[in-house]
Amino acid sequence: MVLKLEHVTKRFGQFTAVDNLSLTIPEKEMFGFLGANGAGKTTTFRMILGLLDSYGGRITWDDKPIDYSTSHLVGYLPEERGLYPKLKVREQIVYLARLRGMKKSDAVIELKSWLERFKIPEYENKKVEELSKGNQQKIQFIAAVVHKPKLLIFDEPFSGLDPVNVELLKDAVVALKENGATIVFSSHQMHHVEELCEHLCILHKGKQVVNGSLKDIKQSFGKKNLIIHADFSLDSLKDYPGVVKTKTTMEGIELQIEGEYISEKILKEIVNKGFIRKFALEEPSLNDIFIEKVGNSFE
User: Fold this and answer.
1) Among 182, 203, 178, 102, CA closest to 147
2) 167 and 235: one domain?
3) In this structure, what are the phi and psi dihedrals at residue 293, rounded to the nearest 5 degrees?
4) Is 73 contained in some domain?
5) Rounded Cα gap, residues 90 and 217, in angstroms
């Protein structure tokens, strides 16, 4: 059940929010959407879900449109929280699950299981407004997954969470994927996409500037990162041929170089100058690629 977007465009008046976007999101995989605020990520999600009509193009899942007939197979975690503050957690989740065709008894069993997993079983009969923002986020997450959907769309699922709860949610997302769900999510934290996703798309002002497998994207970027820690000055390397960017750190220097052959030359240059504690060649990070493609830092 592959999710496909073919030449999808969305305009609001004269403003083009999404511009001729074509993507294939593989079944049972995690797909990452990256882009600054206003890049078109949430608009794309809303079109996938049928909450917004596209101006042009076609969106299909398993070669069929996503509509009310498929709603029980889809889960959505919006960036804006949409829970009823006065309702108790159990009432809320059961109500939303029944809208998706679940029996009340099954919904209660599933809810209890998720509350245990998130270490908050005592919140079952609390009102949502009585919970912290982080715990409200967990309840919103449960609302998106309680009916065991096959397609999950998470818009900034880790925003506003402390590191412990981020790990809890990440583990839950990985488990859902291992159980056969297709997951599409956006994140402001690139390392989450880098850690979790096999394929990704970077959007910039509604256009896709990068799309494909993470491995292929990194390989095609060409440039590498070279990290050197040494007991002597490395300042001379800032102007070394083939060095694109430099960053001085407490331990030494980080260089972005045109290719790994530059690292061999640099090693020959410095090997006799003193003790080298670290000399590591790394793939470019998603942040490096984003800055090059979009022209400014993501954060």
Assistant:
1) 102
2) no
3) -80, -35
4) yes
5) 44
- 179-189 CB burial, b ≥16 within 10 A, e <16: eebbbbbbbeb
How many CB atoms lie under 10 A from the CB of residue 239? 8
User: 299 CB contacts (<8 Å, ≥6 apart)?
Assistant: 188
The gap from C-alpha 251 to its chain's centroid, in whole angstroms, comes to 31
Helix (H, G, I), strand (E, B) or coil at 118: coil
Instruction: Give the residue among 77, 76, 43, 72 at the shortest CA–CA distance from 59.
Output: 43
- Model confidence at 160, pLDDT cuts 50, 70, 90, reads confident
Record the pTM.
Answer: 0.84
AA letter at 17: A
Integer CA distances (angstroms), 193 to 69, 151, 183, in order: 31, 18, 12
If we measure between CA atoms, which residue out of 5, 22, 19 comes closest to residue 55? 19
Chosen domain end from 164, 188, 218: 218
- Residues 198 and 89 occupy one common structural domain: yes
Which two three-digit tokens encode residue 28?
């049972």
**Structure confidence by residue, pLDDT tens digits, 22-53:** 999 989 999 999 988 888 999 999 999 988 88
Contact 151, 61 (CB under 8 A): yes
pLDDT tens-place string over residues 195-204 = 999 999 999 9
Radius of gyration of the chain (CA): 23
Question: In 227-281, which ranges are continuous DSSP H helix?
Answer: 260-270
In a shared domain, residues 55 and 183: yes
Q: Which residues contact 220 (CB under 8 A, 6 or more apart)?
A: none
141 in a structural domain: yes
Three-class DSSP category at 257: strand
Token representation of residue 278: 């670290």
